[in-house]
Amino acid sequence: MASGGLQLLGFVLAFLGWIGIIISTAMPQWKMASYAGDNIVTAQALYEGLWMSCAMQSTGQIQCKVYDSLLKLESTLQATRALMVAAILLGLVAIFVAVTGMKCMKCMEDDQVKKMRMAVFGGVIFLIAGLAALVATSWYGNRVARAFYDPFTPVNTRFEFGSALFIGWAAASLAILGGAFLCCSCPRRETSYPPTRGYPKNAPSTGKDYV
């Protein structure tokens, strides 16, 4: 029962992490820059994500533009895209594999060993998906930090971490933690022997047993 609860907890955490990875990938706030200038009326916030860039005026109006060409993008941005999409696809595969091996499901009930292996294999895929998302977000964040502290970067074009990065870090951590729980939910295989039957001892015969 304890391993079943740990298995369910791991799946829920990994699933929430997978949802967070999708949200982080779709959000345009991977990096943001706020520049007020000399006049606060002209203040605007700039956002850049994996798929588009947005500008929000002080009036609340938001304008977004999708990147025109894939080939014109930086190699780091293309690699971040690839890692995040790979994390989403791996998470989708991990969901189907882990569900098959869950103890609360009736699939493969005739072979409990293979069923447990499926759950562990799903946890391993969740671990890989979480690591891919963690590498992508950390790589992107490192590039933003290096550009921010670069003295040759103009002040009005310096970007900071966006909310999508923090969501991505949290989601990757949940996916890794959930995958680890799924891997640890498999109980150790111990050699079990059938219990020995106790044979009733013959009671000493007395003369009263015979008529």
From TrEMBL:
<keyword id="KW-0472">Membrane</keyword>
<dbReference type="InterPro" id="IPR004031">
    <property type="entry name" value="PMP22/EMP/MP20/Claudin"/>
</dbReference>
<feature type="transmembrane region" description="Helical">
    <location>
        <begin position="119"/>
        <end position="141"/>
    </location>
</feature>
<dbReference type="Pfam" id="PF00822">
    <property type="entry name" value="PMP22_Claudin"/>
</dbReference>
<comment type="similarity">
    <text>Belongs to the claudin family.</text>
</comment>
<feature type="transmembrane region" description="Helical">
    <location>
        <begin position="79"/>
        <end position="99"/>
    </location>
</feature>
<feature type="transmembrane region" description="Helical">
    <location>
        <begin position="7"/>
        <end position="27"/>
    </location>
</feature>
<keyword id="KW-1003">Cell membrane</keyword>
<feature type="transmembrane region" description="Helical">
    <location>
        <begin position="161"/>
        <end position="184"/>
    </location>
</feature>
<dbReference type="GO" id="GO:0005198">
    <property type="term" value="F:structural molecule activity"/>
</dbReference>
<keyword id="KW-0965">Cell junction</keyword>
<keyword id="KW-0796">Tight junction</keyword>
<dbReference type="InterPro" id="IPR003548">
    <property type="entry name" value="Claudin1"/>
</dbReference>
<dbReference type="InterPro" id="IPR006187">
    <property type="entry name" value="Claudin"/>
</dbReference>
<comment type="function">
    <text>Claudins function as major constituents of the tight junction complexes that regulate the permeability of epithelia.</text>
</comment>
<dbReference type="InterPro" id="IPR017974">
    <property type="entry name" value="Claudin_CS"/>
</dbReference>
<keyword id="KW-0812">Transmembrane</keyword>
<keyword id="KW-1133">Transmembrane helix</keyword>
<dbReference type="GO" id="GO:0005923">
    <property type="term" value="C:bicellular tight junction"/>
</dbReference>
<protein>
    <recommendedName>
        <fullName>Claudin</fullName>
    </recommendedName>
</protein>
<dbReference type="GO" id="GO:0005886">
    <property type="term" value="C:plasma membrane"/>
</dbReference>
